[in-house]
Specification:
Order of helices and strands: EEEHHHHHHEHEHEHHEHEH
Structural class: alpha/beta
Largest sheet: 6 strands, mixed
Helix content: 40-55%
Length: 233
């Protein structure tokens, strides 16, 4: 779904609502989102060969194309055919055709490992900090990313929405991940690039960080007592 909470500050630990009780506690576990936290994802890059800027902007307006709703269908375990059928019924064949093109060429959206992320994960592991994954993704496209980027299977464990049949920012997937990982949410922190998912984590008592840069994340974790190597400035 689109992120409608753009005013949330990045690179700070957010502990609102239920998560406020965890403020200031040590960090023993870090849960990472994948897209644009561990792996660079640029969906607009997929459409460059076939569509002009105006069509691209309209495609990523959910009220016009239904793109994000269709992605939610697939991320929750639905098929591409189901997602395209929803678009066709609710937005029209033109947008369904564009969504099919996007899915067929999804590999062009994957732009590499986020700079600094691999070493940060390795440093956390070396320091005895648990490293986990929680990400919205559909099965077929995730398998493509998983084959390309070892960082995605270097974690202690991970929860993918298509497999859990739950999606962020709903509380059930956070609660499922916490239970599966066997971690204490009060000594854990969740890292995601979308404000809505940060708020979702807070709602179940999990502190969270809206990610923008792995160096800033490293410094923030160090400032909050995580014993990993600091940047040399």
């Amino acid at each position: 779904m689109p992120d409608e909470s753009g005013q949330m500050q990045t690179d700070v630990i957010v502990a609102d609502g239920t998560a406020a009780a965890a403020a200031g506690k040590p960090i023993h576990d870090v849960i990472f989102d994948f897209g644009n936290v561990l792996v660079q994802w640029e969906p607009r890059a997929v459409l460059v060969p076939r569509y002009g800027p105006r069509m691209v902007e309209r495609f990523f307006d959910d009220s016009v194309s239904g793109f994000f709703h269709a992605c939610d269908i697939m991320d929750g375990g639905g098929s591409e055919d189901e997602a395209c059928a929803w678009i066709e019924r609710n937005r029209g064949e033109e947008w369904a055709s564009m969504f099919r093109f996007y899915q067929a060429n999804f590999e062009d959206s994957l732009r590499g490992t986020v700079p600094g992320a691999r070493v940060l994960v390795d440093d956390l592991k070396s320091a005895g900090v648990g490293v986990w994954g929680l990400s919205n993704w559909d099965e077929g496209n995730f398998q493509l990313a998983d084959q390309r980027y070892p960082i995605l299977h270097s974690l202690n464990d991970r929860v993918l929405s298509y497999d859990a049949r739950m999606i962020k920012p709903h509380a059930d997937i956070y609660e499922y991940a916490i239970s599966r990982f066997g971690i204490d949410p009060s000594t854990s922190v969740f890292v995601d690039d979308k404000a809505v998912n940060v708020a979702g984590a807070n709602a179940v008592g999990l502190r969270a960080i809206r990610f923008s840069d792995s160096r800033r994340l490293r410094t923030l974790l160090i400032d909050n007592g995580v014993d990993i190597p600091a940047l040399i400035d």
